[in-house]
């Protein structure tokens, strides 16, 4: 296996590929904040002041005031008791798995979605209890597997909030209600945070705005998607924060998030809170594309999440679509996600910054 051919970003919605300037619907930068002037300014000022990195872990000399400021903003944005910033989204899940396996809470069993992100599957190994896999987003299957472990009362559920490859939103309320009281629900909301919910708090706010009665919620997320920066964050109760800071191997042994990325993420959170037009435009663009595709006969989900995913099982079909996309001036984002469960597919991420003409071109290229 080798890396795919590199592509050069040109602006918020274009890349250069094999000498051509093409409209880009790849990635997960749903608001294209990675190029927003406010974030670039915050990053540049922090780099000039603080340098490129901290050169140490947060438990030694790498704890920067900007980390504290970002955590305070995250707590307010997500309305949670504690927020802990980690150097990377993948590492955040590993750190959380380590924290949950450190004895702060003892679990009888861990239940995980069969298509869970690779980082969740890796993190599950650290929790220190039996791991049970249930069928993708299937509450009935989860209930059947729980019934086979009747003596288990302390349950940990692991799932993505939104499955980034397909854009499917987890029916987290249906999953949570079959869990025993006292269970912990861990949602990796890398994709849903900043996109879903009335206050953009993510999947749980979108599908279960009143929360889970009798079940405790923990969220992990990344700052590199909707928030346009970089880094990871763990959101949850105060006991979790204590566990994360108590000799956690990731927090102790990895360099902290560069202050410039923390400053940019803090700026992004402020933008999304004060400029609701960004989220409204993203939703409007998503509805237009998905409605158009469904009207043409394609089996496209009706969710408001801005991803369109099309399986391409036959090489000939994939080639035909690739040529049609290129003819419409669109980068052909056919990918094979690094998982043992997914085949190759075309994935298109709609952003708030795509123009009407670009969205119409995409719909035209995808319609049979």
Q: Could you give the topology of this structure?
A:
Elements: E1 8-11, E2 14-17, E3 20-23, H1 37-50, H2 65-78, E4 82-86, H3 89-100, E5 109-113, H4 118-127, E6 131-134, H5 139-147, E7 155-160, E8 162-163, E9 168-169, H6 172-177, E10 184-188, H7 203-207, E11 216-222, E12 232-236, H8 238-245, H9 249-253, H10 259-274, H11 277-295, E13 307-311, H12 315-327, E14 334-335, E15 345-349, H13 356-366
Parallel strand pairs: 5-6, 5-7, 7-10, 10-11
Antiparallel strand pairs: 1-2, 2-3, 4-12, 8-9, 11-12, 13-15, 14-15
Helix pairs in contact: 1-10, 2-10, 3-4, 11-13
CATH superfamily of the largest domain: Type I PLP-dependent aspartate aminotransferase-like (Major domain)
The helix/strand order is EEEHHEHEHEHEEEHEHEEHHHHEHEEH
Question: What is the C-alpha radius of gyration, as a whole number of Å?
Answer: 21 Å
Strand residue content: 15-25%
How far apart lie the N and C ends?
Answer: 32 Å
Q: Could you report the average pLDDT, rounded to the nearest whole number?
A: 94
Number of strands: 15
The assigned CATH architecture of the largest domain is 3-Layer(aba) Sandwich
Helical content band:
25-40%
